[in-house]
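Why do we bother with a discrete structure alphabet at all? Because it lets us treat a fold like text: something you can write down, compare, and reason about line by line. To make this less abstract, here is a complete entry for Vam6/Vps39-like protein. Read it the way you would read a sentence in a foreign language you are learning: slowly, and without expecting to understand everything at once.
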Amino acid sequence: MNRLFPLPLRKQIENALKNESYIIGSVLANGLNTNDVENAILYETIKESCAMLYFSVGFFPKAYEIFKELKTDILSVADLFPNINLRGFSPKTDLRARCKFKKKILKGGELESAINCFIDYLSDLRMSALNKNPEDYQFIVITNLLVKCYVINNPKIIIPIMSLPNTPRLVDEFEDIFKEHQLYEELAYFYLTRQLHHKGMLIIYSSN
């Protein structure tokens, strides 16, 4: 009499990954012992693929939840959006290429929804950041990405964010961004935070 034995958990997850059954594989991966190095790599791979699947079908909160759990590089997540990433800051990985997903072009209401969810994700990361030193690289990246999202979705929030204690200085490209979007109050504030008082006052006087 032949007996059927269940496949080992690791093999089941590998099969799920091979068959692009990422959600099933992600659930199975919760049972892995991630103290084992190979298991940890498999766990991250299947979870990341699951996050990308969620992102590709518009389930953005679920995708960000996994990215947060995995501590995925924020710039790599930002690279999933058009024109959101910061000039001169390089993502650690191309999530689409790594997970073999075709490039999804976000636009219209879907882009707005994705950015709103990304704002929630960044806000959560910013509030829970252990190091809120304005010179901390991660804190700088989070804050600048957050402001860049608000330029698109809700510019009125920008100055209050810039006014918060220990808020990192905005990167240079915001001078052009604020000009492009005709955000002159924000541009004046940008100059003043950099001690460029003459430029800041010129903007203030010219806008009155």
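What the structure line is telling us, in plain words: The chain has twelve helices and no strands. The radius of gyration is 21 Å.
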